[in-house]
Design brief:
mainly beta; six-stranded parallel β-sheet
């Protein structure tokens, strides 16, 4: 069985493997071995520490039973190897509400060296009010295991009794089981329940109770990057059922890029009997950014014509993240006529989130030489002294700038 098949829809919840320290435990590497002298109440946090172990053995030297209780008390606990229990009668393992225990290899319960027999029954209880994920085999060789609780047991491979093993539901009923009927093996030899596999299969097939989904909170996020969409993430809601949750599917998965505005996200939970429940929340993507102007033109220089004017053209700037419906206005447009000298052109973007602007200069320069005209020859007659007073009208000039005449 590959990793994806083992993980299923709950795989995202697995925590990173943490190193742990032992408290009331004999540790070998990262294994956790717990003994039960007398009547002992043990928990995972106080005996194994951390949130994971390699192999967990309950009752390795001193068997577990006679009122002994072991409680898994972390929100998510990973047993990356095997979970092995050497048990006597009247022991109990508890998976409380809100706790998920993942056993990645085999879960085996033995009566080895404990004197259990048909004449001396070892009735052992496993109470599951949270979730118990068994990714490989579950094998029971105790005389009777009594399953109780309102949580879920999900078995990825074989679910079986061996030797004189038996299984039964408690007086309040079994937890929900998700077991492949083809991999469920209960020979029923001498057991109070002749066919436990059929019992747990019937429990889901006759179930009419809808799942319950909780923790569907609304999400409000601001646009942060370019464009008008924002990636939004959230922890999936919790789904519980009196039978077993077979799927929890959203119409938009966490990590979707949502557009500005309100989008409704809906999760649908389906149990082993096909009953469904939905839970909805909104994702509200809000744009609080001021308008952005991009590609503002560089300064422009143009040559004046004979009228000392010039037409200037440019590519207008554009709006960048125009998610808020900004408008772009200017005091001049491309193709406008400009007078000699420098004129500043300003574009202003306006949206409900504020304003922004960009400016550039248009400079009209005169690069033509002045023109002098009406410059005519003057002829006068000399006087007796061979001289004459001469006067004339100054010539005319033409230029965009003031002209100084000199002779």
């Amino acid at each position: 069985m590959d990793f994806v098949e083992k993980v299923g829809w709950q795989g995202w919840r697995l925590y990173l493997l943490l190193l742990f320290t032992s408290i009331t435990v004999t540790a070998t590497g990262q294994n956790c071995d717990v003994d039960f002298p007398g009547t002992a109440l043990r928990s995972f946090s106080t005996t194994c520490g951390g949130v994971s172990s390699a192999n967990l053995t309950l009752g390795k030297t001193v068997n577990m039973g006679d009122g002994d209780v072991f409680t898994f008390d972390r929100p998510v606990i990973n047993i990356f190897g095997n979970l092995h229990v050497d048990a006597r009668g009247n022991g109990k393992i508890v998976v409380p509400v809100g706790v998920t225990v993942n056993v990645w290899n085999n879960f085996k319960l033995d009566a080895k060296n404990s004197g259990c027999s048909a004449a001396n029954p070892c009735t052992f209880e496993i109470e599951v009010n949270g979730t118990l994920n068994l990714f490989d085999d579950f094998d029971n060789s105790l005389v009777t295991i009594v399953w109780t609780g309102t949580g879920n047991v999900i078995v990825g491979d074989n679910f079986k009794n061996s030797s004189n093993g038996c299984m039964a539901c408690g007086t309040g009923g079994c937890p929900g089981f998700d077991v492949d009927p083809g991999k469920c093996d209960d020979d029923g030899s001498g057991c109070p329940v002749s066919d436990f596999c059929a019992l747990i299969d019937d429990r889901c097939s006759t179930d009419v109770t809808d799942p319950v989904i909780t923790a569907c909170p609304d999400r409000v996020v601001n646009l942060a990057g370019p464009g008008c969409t924002q990636i939004v993430t959230w922890p999936p809601p919790d789904a519980t059922d009196n039978c077993v949750i077979s799927s929890l599917v959203p119409n938009y998965p966490s990590g979707t890029a949502f557009p500005k505005g309100i989008t409704t996200v809906q999760y649908t939970a389906t149990d082993g009997a096909g009953n469904t429940a939905t839970c909805s929340f909104i994702v509200n993507v809000v744009d609080t950014r001021p308008p952005e102007i991009t590609s503002c033109p560089a300064n422009i220089t143009v040559i004046a014509n004979a009228s000392c004017q010039a037409m200037a053209t440019w590519e207008p700037p554009s709006l960048g993240n125009n998610c808020s419906g900004a408008t772009l206005n200017s005091d001049r447009t491309p193709g406008s006529i400009f007078q000699l000298g420098r004129t500043r052109v300003t574009y202003t973007a306006t949206s409900p989130n504020g304003q922004s602007s960009c400016s550039f200069d248009v400079t009209v320069v005169d690069d033509s030489a002045p023109v002098v005209f009406s410059c005519e020859d003057v002829i006068v007659n000399a006087g007796p002294d061979c001289r004459a007073n001469v006067s004339w009208t100054l010539p005319s000039t033409s230029d965009c700038n003031e002209v100084q005449l000199s002779s």
